[in-house]
C-alpha cells in the first residue's frame, strides 16, 4: 500500500498539535506521510523529535491555502485532512477509514465525527454538540451516504475528485463547506460514519464559542453569495441535548451570532426555543457527556 497522505493545517506548535502527531505515530497497519502546514509562518522547532515522514512546511495565510498546499505536496491518492487539535485515540483509526472506503468502492471520500472529554468545559461540549448534530443532518441514506463531511476529519480520494481544491477566499469558518456545495452538483459520492470519531483536544471559552459562530456565519454568507443560493443554513436539532445550567444561553448565543452574520434572519424563533429550553432545564437531566 502506498503511503496515506495526512494534511494538517496549523498556526502554532502547541500541545494539541503535539498530541495529534503523537497519535499518528501510533497508527497501526498503515504507512503515512504527514504534512503539517503552518500558515503563515513555520515556527522554530526540533525536527529530530519526529520521524522523517512528518514534514513541517508553511503556506499563505488561511486554512484553505494550507489544505491546497498540502494537496500539492501529497504523493498518495488518498489524503486525510485532519485538524491540528484532533487526536486519534484508536491506533487502527486510519485503517478503519480505508476499509470503509474499500467497502464502498464508488465513494470519493469518507469522514467521521468529533468527540470531547467528559471533563471538557460547557462551551466545548456545546460546540461539539452543534458540530455533531450538523454532521448527522448531512446523512441522506441508510448506507451512510452524505451530502458533506467535516473539514477537520475526512479522507478524500484525489483521482475521483479532479481538480480538488478549496476556496482560498474563505479565511474564516465553514471553510470546507463551499467545496461540498460544488461537489453536490456532480456525481460525487461521500460517506459519513459517526462511529469513526476523533478526540477534539482543545477547549473553548464562551467568548471563543461566539467567535466561532461569527466566523461560520460569515462563511455561510460567502457561500450563499458565491453560489447564488437563497437557502441559508440554520441550526436544527436531530438529537435532544442534555441540558445543564447555562447550556441554553450558550446555544442561543451561538445561533443568534450565526444568524446575524450569515444573513439567516433576526432569530424570531428564539423566544419559542427559550421557552422550550426553560422546560428542559427544570427536568434536572444529567450532564451531557458527548456522543
Features:
291 residues; alpha/beta; three-stranded mixed beta sheet; disordered C terminus
Protein described:
- By secondary structure, the chain is an alpha/beta fold.
- The chain contains eight helices and eleven strands.
- The chain has helices spanning 15-25, 63-73, 93-103, 122-136, 177-183, 206-226, 247-262, 270-281; strands at residues 4-10, 32-38, 54-58, 78-82, 86-87, 109-111, 114-115, 145-146, 153-157, 190-192, 198-200.
- The strands form two sheets. An eight-stranded mixed beta sheet has the order 3-2-1-4-9-6-10-8, sandwiched between helices.
- Helix 6 packs parallel to helix 7.
- The protein is globular.
Beta strand count: 11
Structural Rg = 19 Å
Secondary-structure element series:
EHEEHEEHEEHEEHEEHHH
Structural class: alpha/beta
Number of helices: 8
The overall average pLDDT, rounded, is 86
**Helical proportion?**
25-40%
Provide the spatial order of strands within the biggest beta sheet. 3-2-1-4-9-6-10-8
- Give the strand content: 15-25%
- The unreliable regions are 266-291
Please tell me what the overall shape is: globular
Write the layout of secondary structure elements.
Elements: E1 4-10, H1 15-25, E2 32-38, E3 54-58, H2 63-73, E4 78-82, E5 86-87, H3 93-103, E6 109-111, E7 114-115, H4 122-136, E8 145-146, E9 153-157, H5 177-183, E10 190-192, E11 198-200, H6 206-226, H7 247-262, H8 270-281
Parallel strand pairs: 1-2, 1-4, 2-3, 6-10, 7-11
Antiparallel strand pairs: 4-9, 5-11, 6-9, 8-10
Helix pairs in contact: 6-7
Amino acid at each position: 500500500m502506498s503511503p496515506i497522505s495526512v494534511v494538517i493545517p496549523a498556526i502554532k506548535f502547541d500541545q494539541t498539535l503535539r498530541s495529534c502527531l503523537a497519535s499518528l505515530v501510533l497508527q497501526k497497519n498503515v504507512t503515512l506521510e504527514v504534512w503539517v502546514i503552518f500558515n503563515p509562518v513555520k515556527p522554530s522547532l526540533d525536527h529530530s523529535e519526529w520521524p522523517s515522514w512528518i514534514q513541517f512546511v508553511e503556506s499563505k495565510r488561511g486554512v484553505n491555502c494550507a489544505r491546497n498546499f498540502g494537496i500539492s505536496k501529497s504523493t498518495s491518492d488518498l489524503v486525510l485532512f485532519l485538524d491540528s487539535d484532533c487526536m486519534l485515540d484508536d491506533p487502527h483509526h486510519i485503517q478503519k477509514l480505508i476499509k470503509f472506503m474499500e467497502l464502498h468502492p464508488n465513494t470519493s471520500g469518507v469522514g467521521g465525527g468529533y468527540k470531547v472529554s467528559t471533563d471538557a468545559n460547557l462551551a466545548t461540549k456545546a460546540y461539539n454538540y452543534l458540530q455533531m448534530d450538523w454532521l448527522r443532518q448531512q446523512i441522506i441514506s441508510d448506507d451512510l451516504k452524505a451530502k458533506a463531511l467535516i473539514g477537520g476529519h475526512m479522507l478524500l480520494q484525489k483521482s475521483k475528485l479532479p481538480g480538488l481544491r478549496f476556496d482560498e477566499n474563505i479565511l474564516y469558518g465553514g471553510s470546507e463547506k463551499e467545496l461540498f456545495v460544488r461537489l453536490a452538483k456532480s456525481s460525487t459520492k461521500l460517506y459519513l460514519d459517526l462511529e469513526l470519531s476523533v478526540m477534539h483536544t482543545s477547549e473553548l471559552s464562551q467568548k471563543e464559542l461566539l467567535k466561532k459562530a461569527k466566523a461560520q456565519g460569515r462563511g455561510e454568507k460567502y457561500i450563499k453569495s458565491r453560489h447564488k443560493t437563497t437557502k441559508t443554513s440554520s441550526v436544527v436539532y436531530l438529537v435532544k441535548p442534555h441540558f445543564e445550567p447555562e447550556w441554553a444561553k450558550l446555544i442561543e448565543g451561538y445561533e443568534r451570532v450565526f444568524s446575524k452574520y450569515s444573513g439567516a434572519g433576526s432569530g424570531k424563533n428564539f423566544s419559542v426555543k427559550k421557552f422550550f429550553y426553560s422546560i428542559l432545564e427544570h427536568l434536572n437531566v444529567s450532564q451531557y457527556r458527548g456522543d
